[in-house]
Amino acid sequence: MSSLRLPFLGLAFLFAVDLVFSQQQGQPPAAPPPEDSSASLLARGSKLYFAQDYKEAIDPYLKALELEKQKPTLNPALFRVLVENLGVSYLLTGDRKHSREVFEFGILKDAAYPLFHYNLACTYAESDDLDHALAELALAYRYKQNMNPGEEFPDPRLDDSFHRYLKNRRFLDFLQSMEQQAAGKSASPQAPAAPPSPPAIRGRLLHDIAPVAGAQVTLQVFNDEPCAKLFDARSDSPEDAEKLTKCSRDLFTVQSDEEGEFVFSGVQPGWYAVRFLWNIDPKPSAGPSADFISGFLVVYAAQPDVSGRYDTLSQGPAFYFDAVQDHSIEFKY
Questions:
Q1: Three-state secondary structure readout of 199-248
Q2: Burial of residue 210, with CB atoms counted within 10 A of its CB: 0-12 exposed, 13-18 middle, 19 or more buried
Q3: What is the mean pLDDT of the chain?
Q4: Number of separate domains in the chain
């Protein structure tokens, strides 16, 4: 994270201070919010952040973010400032892990904001993970038009996070390609288009041709490809089971809608799998059973799970999501 980006980050601070009490541009300031509100904590953290005391800024920013997770009160512009400044504070104090988690949460909530992707790319670059860094930079350039008023898009060449790649041909060719694409768009005036929908993992659950509504759909994430392959191997080894516990986890859970459809948006490039829980109908007459259907392992338990709601589990195989285009899943039984 380069000191050359600090003028832009300082602008984000001023933007926060100008808006934090009114919440809307062009309106007179309202009464100051309570000291323990997200807005007050954001203002407190921003004063420390602008003074470049990033370590001390983390605490009020983090408290504000936790409040926003429980009950959002900040407008979208201020939420962006909060997430960006907290993530950058972590990154500038050497905590890449928490920085990455903050930006991943920001993308989950606002996937089309380019600086969340740019800063996430910085965390990968500082970990010398060029593949993930370029994937996030590509999304940052894709959503470049969604910058906040007054913000400028950073130049990766001037950012210390990418310094190690300044002689890397793949990195330089990538930047040249992004700039040529941007130049081509600006040279061809056309009516403004709506911001593109971020790539997502989406799918549909069907019984014959009828949609299955209300199924619990869980997105599982794997740390890397070896972990995903270990998952697909379905080994009975206790050692392999322990490895899987350490390298995989459930990420998000949603319910299928009336059309049997589900969507996971704001998902980062990586290895994933999808698991369904639902009530199978009609019930298999043979009682508990297991079978492979449409590439999924389907297990009918003949009794409700621990939640008391579902009697059937379907586990899909691991797949790679590149976050450049949608990944679609259709499960039909």
A1: CEEEEEEEECCEECCCCEEEEEEECCHHHHHHHHHCCCCHHHHHHHHHHE
A2: exposed
A3: 83
A4: 2
Q: Does residue 193 belong to any structural domain of this protein?
A: no
Residues 206 and 57 reside in one and the same domain: no
Please, are residues 68 and 102 in contact by the beta-carbon 8 Å criterion?
A: no
Contact 273, 231 (CB under 8 A): yes
Q: How far is CA 333 from the centre of its chain?
A: 31
What value does the mean pLDDT take over residues 141-160? 88
In whole angstroms, give the CA distance from residue 136 to residue 8: 19
**181 and 204 in a common domain:** no
DSSP 8-state code for residue 325:
S
Of 250, 292, 291, nearest in space to 273 by CA: 250
Residue-level pLDDT at 20: 43
pLDDT digits (tens, 9 = 90+) for 228-240: 999 998 888 889 8
Model confidence at 262, pLDDT cuts 50, 70, 90, reads very high
Q: Which residues contact 323 (CB under 8 A, 6 or more apart)?
A: 135, 136, 139, 199, 267, 268, 269
Q: Distance between CA atoms of 241 and 107, rounded to whole angstroms? A: 31
217 plus 294 within the same structural domain? yes
Return the biggest CA–CA distance within the chain.
Answer: 70
Q: Are 331 and 294 in contact (CB under 8 A)?
A: yes
* Token duo for residue 323: 């976050």
Residues 299-314: what's their mean pLDDT? 78
For 106, the domain range is 3-186
DSSP assignments along 109-124, one per residue: H-TT-HHHHHHHHHHH
- Claim to verify: residue 164 and residue 306 sit in the same structural domain: no
Inter-axis angle of helices 169-186 and 130-142, nearest 10: 10
Residue 288 in tokens: 């508990």
Q: What is the pLDDT of residues 122-144, one digit of tens each?
A: 999 999 999 999 999 999 998 99
d(CA 317, CA 297): 9
Pick from 168-182, 230-244, 264-278, 292-306: least confident:
292-306
Q: Which of 130, 159, 186 is the last residue of a domain?
A: 186
